[in-house]
Amino acid sequence: MKPLRLSIIGAGHLGRIHARLAVDLPDTQLVAVCDPSQSARHQVATDTRTRPVADYRQLFGQIDAAIVAAPTSEHHAIGVELAQQGIHLLIEKPLAPTLDAAEALVAAADHHHVVLQVGHVERFNAAFQSAAGYLADPKYIEASRLSSYPFRSTDTGVVMDLMIHDLDIVLTLADADVRTVEAFGLTVLGGHEDVAQARITFENGCVANLTASRVSYESCRKMNVWTRSVFASLDFASGIATLVKPRYDVLNRQIDVDSLTPDQQSHLKEHLFEELLVKRTLGSVSVNAIVEEQRDFVTSIRNHQTPRVPGAAGRDAVALAERVLTAIDQHTWDGDAHGRVGPLAAPSTPILKSPHWNEPARREAG
Questions:
Q1: Is 239 left (phi over 0), alpha (psi -120 to 50) or beta?
Q2: Alpha helices (runs of H) in the chain, residue ranges in sequence order
Q3: CB of 195 within 8 A of CB of 215?
Q4: Chain segment 291-323, per-residue pLDDT in tens
């Protein structure tokens, strides 16, 4: 079997990580690293002992697949052109900066019969993988994703940069149409929102509260999920999930704690999470989610199967992100239609189309 010829498009932060890990992918040959920056491509190519290329078009006919880690604004143009050449695609999240662009990428991949996978890497996180089988029909989900300012990915705001991970997972778990989206956000540095909070209600009754910040003094990547029978706390940073599963008689309201003797109450107080609300730990700190993501990409190509995170899932996450951005853009800060509005908390003006808040007129108003 011939090795799958692979290239990394984009030699920034994520591109460097992908290239370093792709070197060890089984049955795969890293052919080149592509980036318009000479210093960036040469550094990564040297580190991975492969060829530096300035323009991805130079690779047509020489590669079978590409991992696109270029800026989000370039995903659409690069992805469509590669798909037209029959090149399979793993495109970093978000799939595209707009829903229209995301839909065009999905259509191009379908038309040219190439695999399109999206880099929602938390789907491969050991915490999510180990707990996912217990999380059917969730009723409430809350997530916090906090980091310091990255000084990269500044072509998008925190919704597309960070919250998009949790939007994808929430859509996967809820498995229902979205009924309503409420959100607000603030711009702290640059021209996009850096803090965002969203409340999403689904048609099946599931509610999700999501918080994202890239101007936080502490880091956090956690999600809590309540179902009818299980509580799960997922720590994406550690790869560990904690499950709390009430005993059958607790779930069926057959225990009256007020009728217990003092000794029984004292005992259960000490052993609550061993006997009534049974706690267990799942997951593994040794699993590298990006490696698992890359392996799924190669396997999907080899076996002609749909990847775990197909283009359609990436498109749906972008669609929900746009709804969040629209709600942020329309949020009024003073309870008054004529007061401050949007992530810049600017004086009320005719609403601009999301998510282009950094257009000159709006920036000056801020």
A1: left
A2: 13-22, 38-48, 75-84, 99-111, 126-131, 158, 164-174, 248-251, 262-275, 289-303, 311-330, 360-365
A3: yes
A4: 999 999 999 999 999 999 999 999 999 999 999
- CA 225 to chain centroid, in Å, comes to 17
- The two beta strands, 28-34 and 4-9, are parallel
For the record, the structure tokens of 214 come out as: 């890239």
282: phi then psi, degrees, rounded to nearest 5: -130, 165
In whole angstroms, how far apart are CA 168 and each of 118, 172, 297? 10, 6, 18
pTM of the model: 0.89
The SS3 call for residue 282 is strand
Q: Of 210, 207, 135, 127, which is closest to residue 165 (Cα–Cα)? A: 210
Could you give the CA distance from residue 354 to residue 6 in angstroms, rounded to a whole number? Answer: 35
Residue boundaries of the structural domains of the chain:
4-121+288-309, 124-283
Angle at 316 between CA 311 and CA 319, to 5 degrees: 125
Two tokens, residue 345:
């908390």
DSSP state of 197: E
> For residue range 191-250, what is the model confidence (pLDDT) as tens digits?
899 999 999 999 999 999 999 999 999 999 999 999 999 999 999 999 999 999 999 888
Rounded CA separation 117/115 (Å): 6
| Sign of the four-CA dihedral 287, 290, 294, 299 | positive
Q: Which CATH superfamily is domain 4-121+288-309 in?
A: NAD(P)-binding Rossmann-like Domain (3.40.50.720)
Query: Kind of pairing, strands 195-202 and 88-92?
Result: unpaired
- The Cα 31–Cα 20 span in angstroms is 13
Domain 124-283: give its CATH code. Answer: 3.30.360.10
CB-CB neighbours of 251 under 10 Å: 13
Contact 13, 152 (CB under 8 A): yes
Tokens of 135: 């999380």
**Tokens 């029959």 sit at which residue?**
86
Residue 28 pairs in a beta bridge with: 4
